[in-house]
């Protein structure tokens, strides 16, 4: 690059392209600080020579934003993500990279505990992804899952159930019936029904999970043990319902003390049985994002 700078000067757009490409290599080598320095230098040159509305500027802004996201410098990352969106949306109606950036913005807001904003950007990314990739796509299922995760963590069980069920519908269209993703989605849905005291629906879901686990893993897999535990809890609660009904009838005739009634169901009984982990979306599109629009 020294020769290039000597021939055309440090502020030439071609130098910015070289810096951008060097930054890519640093990313591949996991040298993110060095990559960020290259991207920031390229960003200054492209802004000065090409303007802050150029696609080359947008590409480098995205590259730098993803590194800042990786470094958890959220406000700086958001600033560059929004610059990217402003430029690209002015030139393209829908773009696959726009959907990725919308999802990354949602993830940052989730990490900052701005849950309403996170859901709003996930939903915007969802609609954009459907347009670009179609309704039955693995990325659509992923976004439904992340929307469900936020609702689940916030205790919004009905909204979580709707999101997870929508994701399951997509996955059933794409995957083999006994795929692990489908089993996991069904297990989460079963747990939600348990927490909502929807015992009959929970039983129906867990019976399906057991059938799939038996056919996939055999009869002694540890996941089957967990499902049987959940199914056993459903049976216990079903018996409690029957006992409560009988006790209520007896009260009409014998005035049994209220102390004979069963203990209320603990909805948090299974709250730790299915840890639902959220992983930042920045690494997922990191390498892919470095290819956006940038000249080679």
Q: Report the mean per-residue pLDDT as an integer.
A: 78
Which series of helices and strands comes N to C?
Answer: HHHHHHHHHHHHH
Structural domains: how many: 3
Biggest β-sheet description: none
The general outline is elongated
Number of helices: 13
Distance between the termini: 15 Å
Number of strands: 0
Q: What percentage of amino acids are in beta strands?
A: under 5%
How much helicity do the residues have? over 70%
Poorly predicted residue ranges: 241-296
Structural class: mainly alpha
The whole-angstrom Rg is 26 Å
Task: Write structural notes for this entry.
This is Kinesin light chain. Keywords: Repeat, TPR repeat. The protein is mainly α and 296 residues long. The chain is built from 13 helices and no strands. It has helices at residues 2-8, 13-28, 32-50, 55-70, 74-91, 96-111, 115-133, 138-153, 157-174, 180-195, 199-217, 222-254, 286-289.
List the helices and strands and how they pair.
Layout: H1 2-8, H2 13-28, H3 32-50, H4 55-70, H5 74-91, H6 96-111, H7 115-133, H8 138-153, H9 157-174, H10 180-195, H11 199-217, H12 222-254, H13 286-289
Question: What is the gist of this entry?
Answer:
This protein folds into 3 domains: 1-91, Serine Threonine Protein Phosphatase 5, Tetratricopeptide repeat (Alpha Horseshoe), CATH 1.25.40; 93-154, Alpha Horseshoe (Serine Threonine Protein Phosphatase 5, Tetratricopeptide repeat), CATH 1.25.40; 175-272. It is 73% helix and 0% strand.
